[in-house]
User: Which sequence fits this backbone?
């Protein structure tokens, strides 16, 4: 006789799954990358996300200079609005609810440039008051953004007005006052620096300025040397004399070019010797003209010791413009006096020698000669 089976239990309904919280929108960076940006105070990540700190109730930009929080207290939010909906308030130091610092600085620089464009530009203290910052802060931010100081920028803008005024005014005196000069003394001093010639010569299209030039022959090819009454204004290297002369005419379109082989024989000999031994020093006077930014870069180039090289980034740092690497490379390419101002001592970050106006092989030869042996040139103190 079979034992009756126990009554079956009713089937248990499956347990309800807890409702899942909505997945937040994906952030521009994974959490580990975002924390790394916070830990390194990476200002380049500003505007991409914000982070909040549970112990303070505050949210900040990744580049906030405040004391770094502990990672376990940090949460990330795609936008400031997300952080505020979560109950956090904006940091009063980095102001994360507003535009990123780079944008604020750019807007501020634009406003300062407008002030400096005035016929009588304000001084540094006045610029600081207009920006609501210290004069030191204005100087630092302006130079980092433009590559020149406010004073140098104002001088360059005045030089531009000066060139325009000399071309349009009926007299030199009229041009002086149109350009914003209060007296002729400072006007003539400024024209000498900005134009490299007298105002009357410039008004005549530069025809009154004479540039003498001559050729020499080096082991690296032809060398064109050009001089003004003030000093050497061009040293070009190449293979074809006509091409070098055409290059000189393009660079000085208003000058009266005159070949003077005999008169410049000693100068040419000195510069050909410099090509053969580029580590030598020369005392020849120079008459190099460029923007305030270019002159700053050329000064930094001249400070690189023979036998050493720098990357464009290292040169930009030495010139005080670490963010303007491309502009620094452009200034190197515009160097009018090759070898004398040693732009051949600057290379790419990976050590590649490309980018020399007169040819990579000439650049390589100059560097090897400076070292005195066929071995790679040594890097500077930062490389």
Assistant:
């Amino acid at each position: 006789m079979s034992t009756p089976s126990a009554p079956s239990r009713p089937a248990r309904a499956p347990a309800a799954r807890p409702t899942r919280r909505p997945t937040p929108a994906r952030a521009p960076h994974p959490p580990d990358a975002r924390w790394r940006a916070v830990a390194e105070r990476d200002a380049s990540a500003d505007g991409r996300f914000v982070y909040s700190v549970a112990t303070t109730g505050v949210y900040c930009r990744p580049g906030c200079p405040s004391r770094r929080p502990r990672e376990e207290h940090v949460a990330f939010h795609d936008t400031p609005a997300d952080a505020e909906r979560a109950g956090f308030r904006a940091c009063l130091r980095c102001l994360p609810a507003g535009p990123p610092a780079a944008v604020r600085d750019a807007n501020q620089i634009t406003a300062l440039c407008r002030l400096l464009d005035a016929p009588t530009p304000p001084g540094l203290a006045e610029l600081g008051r207009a920006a609501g910052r210290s004069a030191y802060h204005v100087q630092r931010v302006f130079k980092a953004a433009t590559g020149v100081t406010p004073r140098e920028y104002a001088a360059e803008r005045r030089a531009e007005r000066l060139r325009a005024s000399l071309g349009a005014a009926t007299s030199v005196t009229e041009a002086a006052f149109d350009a914003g000069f209060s007296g002729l003394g400072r006007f003539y001093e400024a024209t000498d620096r900005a134009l490299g010639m007298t105002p009357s010569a410039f008004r005549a299209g530069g025809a009154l300025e004479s540039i003498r030039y001559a050729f020499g022959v080096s082991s690296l090819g032809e060398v064109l040397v050009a001089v003004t009454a003030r000093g050497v204004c061009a040293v070009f290297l190449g293979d074809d004399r006509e091409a070098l002369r055409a290059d000189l005419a393009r660079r000085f379109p208003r000058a009266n070019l005159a070949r003077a082989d005999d008169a410049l024989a000693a100068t040419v000999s000195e510069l050909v010797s410099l090509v053969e031994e580029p580590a030598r020093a020369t005392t020849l006077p120079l008459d190099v003209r460029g923007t305030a930014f270019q002159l700053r870069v050329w000064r930094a180039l001249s400070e690189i010791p023979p036998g050493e090289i720098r990357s464009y980034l290292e040169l930009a740092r030495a010139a005080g413009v670490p963010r303007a690497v491309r502009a620094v490379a452009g200034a190197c390419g515009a160097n009018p006096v090759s070898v004398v101002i040693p732009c051949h001592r600057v290379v790419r970050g990976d050590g590649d020698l490309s980018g020399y106006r007169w040819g990579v092989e000439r650049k390589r030869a100059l560097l090897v000669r400076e070292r005195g042996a066929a071995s790679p040139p040594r890097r500077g103190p930062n490389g």
